[in-house]
Design brief:
heterodimer, A: about 180 residues, alpha+beta, B: about 0% strand
Chain lengths: ~180, ~450
Amino acid sequence: MKRLVFAVVCLAQLAVPLSLVAKHESTRSSGTPFRFQTAPVDPADPFRGRYVRLSFAAERTPVPFADQGFVYYAPDRRMYAEVEVDKDGFARLTKVHAQRPAGVEYVDVFTRHMHDGGPGVPAAMFVRLPFDRYYLPEDKAPAVEAAYFEATAKAQANTYVEVRVRDGHAALVALVLDGRPVE
Amino acid sequence: MQKEAWLLSELHGLVEKGVIDAATAERLRAHYAPATGGTAAAVAAASPRLGWGMLLLSIGGAALIAGGIILLFAHNWESWTPGMRVGLSLLPLLAGQLAGVYALRNGSRLWCEGAGIFTAIAAGASIALIAQTYQFGGDLPRFLMVWLLLAAPLIYLLDSSAVAAFSWALATGWIIASPHGGWWGQSGDVQQALRLPVFLALFAIPLPHLIRELRIDRASPRVAWMLRMAILAAIVGLGFGASYHDRDAIALVYAAMAAAMALAGQHWFGGVHGAWGNPLRSVGQLGICIAALSLTVEFTRVHFTWPSSSIMLLPLLFALAALVLGWRLFAAGDRWLAPLFAALPVLFYFMPSIARSSTVLSGLLSHAYVFAIAGALIQRGLALSRLGLANAGVGLLTALVLLRFFDSHLSYVVRGVGFIVTGVAFFVAIFWLRRRLRGAAS
């Protein structure tokens, strides 16, 4: 009996990482593509090697609550933001939902803090996108960081990440600095 | 003598298999101890704790190998395709699982502990490495929760105390990393309200294993190590788990928990001496001293306000445990220390009400309580010829004096002279206690 339970636990331990792979692969293959404008920085993560930390233009704009009766959230709470493409071709978060919305493209986000726009302004919140890091080989990370600073120094820098989104799950496909994808 | 030593080395296994109970094992140890030479070393050599050093080496070796493999993978990561990376990410996990299968067949405790902690670490590492391969974003609380739930069954399947301690560390990590409202958090927020119950549920997962080990051999180092980790997890977890609105209640929870721990350490680990060997008693007594001293500060007494939320169930449960244990110890002959410890939660709960009615009365009560505990500690230390206990009593009195110097409005000169006098009195008291104890011993 103990060996049978051990076998079940072993399968569960293997199933969790494999299900992550499956979910990600299906999103990459059949998800809706979006481009999010970025502003990366470069910290070191002792557990996962080096990566470029990403922040986005979409995170700097407060997103109105879909349900205006909903007034307050603690930070780092998972919510669901509707995504649309603006006239420049970049993704924009239009509304944030407490529950998964139906019939619209949305992406899982994490709450940051409330936006106080004053009386009469719709309740809104700053959010954090879940694809907040782009992993790179150790030797390439500094060069990418330098390329980022160069790209952002130019006006109208074409710096973004390509993301595919399916049922809220976002698969980061590429980091593009000044129009050139990072290999 | 070799036969007796062999018999003693078998006792631990016999208790585990239920052939004999722990009390019988203790009696056999006591009976055959003289036959093995009568020395502590000989008895220790024949006891199952011989394996503890090997056990630590096994656990440490497994953890180092797992960590080293992860670092090697991380360093050469870019050389491999995503498919290879997934395979390599799962390889340590598979290796750990195979070692677990071998450990189950072999039945060796060394293999069980080593394979258990290796598999537990590899389970989390495989997720982290795949997250890196596929550029997943960071959701640390969810990662830690999944890691804990995948590792926890190994505690029971492989009978691994190392995984139990690791699970408490993961539960602590989860409560620290999980979203919490802080002072701006919405009162009545469901997720906020669930954090503490979820932490307590996670905390409880390894407890049956700890209780089982307690029944087998409560004086074993593995029990002491698990207790240390559990106590640390409980203290940190409760602190982080409570919402800002319940911050006062946490002080009461800590006070009641300290009383329950100190009495549990005294009741169930009476024969286990030393602050390191009996963490329940040592941490509990330290907590009692801190709580008692905090009550002597007028600001604390007056400003504590107890919320009417479910968190108040915790001090109630700890207080009930402390009262029951206090009563048992009192019935067993401990007329001073145990009743005083058991009274702490009740005193702590009612002190703000008393202070708001009369600050003088509450001040007298709180100071009298500290003096009583200090006196009881000194008396117990002298009675049992244990300098550490007596020193604790003197130390408590010294801390009280120092605290009054800090929060009083006396001049620097008076405070300086006071510090010197207190310091001298401390050394004189220790010198006197040592002489008393040496006199009693001779």
